[in-house]
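Repro:
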Amino acid sequence: DPYRDEYGRLEKMLGRVERERGELEEEAAQTSLDPAEARERLLAKAREDNQRLMDMAERLEGMQDAIARKRQTLQDLEQDMEERKGEAGDTKKYEVLYKRDKEMTEFIDNFDAT
């Protein structure tokens, strides 16, 4: 529906414009502050940003550790699958050898009988 699409687009635009307005109002309020108060607000914002950055870095490190563990698990599972494929091949070889041994035994038994 084109009206809904237009409405969604306008809603997004309204949100963006309201954010910009808020930022500009905050900036205007800071210019009217005395220098000491502006400095305190700036330092508080810097501390807050640094804390957020440290939290994000910690989350990132946790995610990287989780990814490394998952990759190791995947590698272990792939290695286990390869080993099992090899075992399946060994089983098949054993079956072929067992069948050949059985045929040879039957041949020998029948050879003595003739």
